[in-house]
């Protein structure tokens, strides 16, 4: 019996050594990567034994399937708020000393989406909100048809609700 085990172990060593030498010489007969597959098989064996690990993996897979729906909901939220922002805050004059300037405004749809992305990340959304609210510092764009009251008190519920909804959706 011991003779048989010795033969099996020497055979396994011969196969591994042969594969190593063939891999070194560049032969594509059997690669070392083939044996790495057996490492993955250990994980499958572990998953079959552990009920808790299997439950966690199943939960992860099911939550990963819902990810496109959450992403679509975030895109819809950005689209709706960008269109509303363009209508309400699109005529504010761009000044470099305020939060509404040439790189941060609601005059075009892509710029509005960028402002909302900046607000969703928490990057100075309070300053943007104050620059869009009604006060004497907010001036109308000279190219617009409005001459005064370009800011709006809607800025407060607009930005706060957007920030809260984005935080809720991103955390879920």
From TrEMBL:
Ion transport domain segment(s): 27-170
Principal place of residence: membrane
Subcellular location: Membrane
Domain of life: Eukaryota
One of the protein's GO biological processes: calcium ion import across plasma membrane
GO-annotated molecular function: high voltage-gated calcium channel activity
Family: Belongs to the calcium channel alpha-1 subunit (TC 1.A.1.11) family.
Transmembrane segments: 66-84, 154-171
Organism (species): Ceratitis capitata
Keywords from the UniProt entry: Calcium, Calcium channel, Calcium transport, Ion channel, Ion transport, Membrane, Transmembrane, Transmembrane helix, Transport, Voltage-gated channel
Keyword Glycoprotein found: no
Membrane topology of this protein: Multi-pass membrane protein
The protein's name in its UniProt record: (Mediterranean fruit fly) hypothetical protein
One annotated Gene Ontology cellular component of this protein: voltage-gated calcium channel complex
């Amino acid at each position: 019996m011991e003779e048989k085990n010795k033969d099996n172990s020497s055979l396994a060593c011969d196969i591994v050594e042969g594969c190593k030498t063939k891999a070194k010489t560049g032969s594509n007969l059997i690669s070392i990567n083939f044996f790495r597959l057996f490492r993955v098989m250990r994980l499958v064996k572990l998953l079959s034994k552990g009920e808790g690990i299997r439950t966690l993996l199943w939960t992860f897979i099911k939550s990963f399937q819902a990810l496109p729906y959450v992403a679509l909901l975030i895109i819809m939220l950005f689209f709706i708020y960008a269109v509303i922002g363009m209508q309400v805050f699109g005529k504010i004059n761009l000044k470099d000393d305020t939060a509404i300037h040439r790189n941060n405004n609601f005059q075009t749809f892509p710029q509005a989406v960028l402002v909302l992305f900046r607000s969703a990340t928490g990057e100075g959304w309070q300053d943007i909100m104050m620059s869009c609210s009604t006060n004497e510092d907010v001036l109308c764009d000279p190219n617009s048809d409005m001459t005064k009251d370009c800011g709006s008190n809607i800025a407060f519920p607009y930005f706060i609700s957007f920030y809260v909804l984005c935080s809720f959706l991103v955390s879920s």
